[in-house]
Amino acid sequence: MSSVPLAEERDQKLPVEFADEKESINITGFWTFLVTDVLIFASLFSTYAVMHKAAALGPTSVQLFKMGPVMLETLLLLTSSFTIGLGVYAMRRGQVRALMLWMVLTMLLGAGFVSSEINDFISFAHIGATWHTSAFLSAFDILVGTHGAHVTFGIFWALTLLFQLKKRGITARTARKVYTFSLYWHFLDIVWIFIFTFVYLNGKIVP
Amino acid sequence: MAHSETELTISEAYERDNDRALKFLKPRFHEEKFPMTQILGYIGSLILTFAAYFLVINRVLPSIALLAVILTLAVMQGALQLGVFMHVREGRGLAWQLIPLYLVFLIALGMVGMSVWIMLFKSGVS
């Protein structure tokens, strides 16, 4: 990203979500929330790191994980992160219909991600791999499940934003809400990248 | 230096300190006619993901080195998401979110890193 010289920066107008002072403070507040969410996921990742090898009588990570669905989930979530990024881009240009279209697409991709993940968990349960089975599976289910619950919540949040955009259009307030939603969604994408790497890929590396 | 400048008024001191110390929080905005940054960011994230996947599937390195490489790829991907999509340096006035973010990355790295580290002592814990 190129840095703009100070003189030009003075002429450039603030984007709509930062135009109102109170709404900008809300954005900073949302960053603070994300910081606390990093702490939740960091403690769950730590738990998983400690419990990874404790498979007891259940399957180990090498036996359990199927990379096909995981790659599909990763692709869906990466693409949804891209579409909400384009949504915020459209919002800054004042294109409310394009913004709503990108948000609907983001929600669909997120729903695809969640349904694939639920499907994974059901197939694990069929071979008797639930969170009762071993410390490894308890840690796995709580880490991946917390992320999945976040994504599910995000889909419903986006739905409420769609109604607000339909009724009020792009104002300083709705723009701030869409912007914080996009922060939340990208954040979940980053967490997933670490689950993908630290849980799934790492689980496939035989020592 | 601060000791020799006791003659400053409160507001003078405020102006000076703000200027110097908070320079690293100066927001940066990025505007384009076409969302090229987003498209390049998306392609970059796909490349990083598939690179990590094929490295693991083809088992090109010993386990520890492989884990180090894919974790590096994940950190690069996280930085890409923060920079390209989350506009981490944007803000009104100052980008205050950077301070808690730096702090929490340090804490998270410490928590996970030390948990992994302590599990390397096979004899003490089981």
Largest β sheet strand count, sense and barrel closure of chain B: none
Q: Give the C-alpha Rg of chain A.
A: 20 Å
Beta strand % of chain B: under 5%
In total, the number of strands of chain B is 0
Q: How helix-rich are the residues of chain A, as a percent range?
A: over 70%
Mean pLDDT of chain B: 84
Please characterize this protein's 3D structure.
The complex is a heterodimer of chains A (207) and B (126). With 207 residues, chain A is mainly α. Chain A is built from 7 helices and no strands. The longest helix of chain A is centred in the C-terminal third of the chain and has 34 residues, at 135-168. Chain A is elongated and about 60 Å long. Chain B is mainly alpha-helical. Chain B has one domain (3-119). Chain B is 63% helix and 0% strand. Chain B is built from 4 helices and no strands. In chain B, helix 2 packs antiparallel against helix 3. The longest helix of chain B has 23 residues, at 63-85. At the A-B interface, helix 2, helix 4 and helix 7 of A face helix 2, helix 3 and helix 4 of B.
Present the secondary structure layout.
The complex is a heterodimer of chains A (207) and B (126).
Chain A: H1 6-11, H2 21-51, H3 61-64, H4 67-92, H5 96-126, H6 135-168, H7 172-204
Helix pairs in contact in A: 2-6, 2-7, 4-5, 4-7, 5-6, 6-7
Chain B: H1 10-21, H2 36-57, H3 63-85, H4 98-119
Helix pairs in contact in B: 2-3
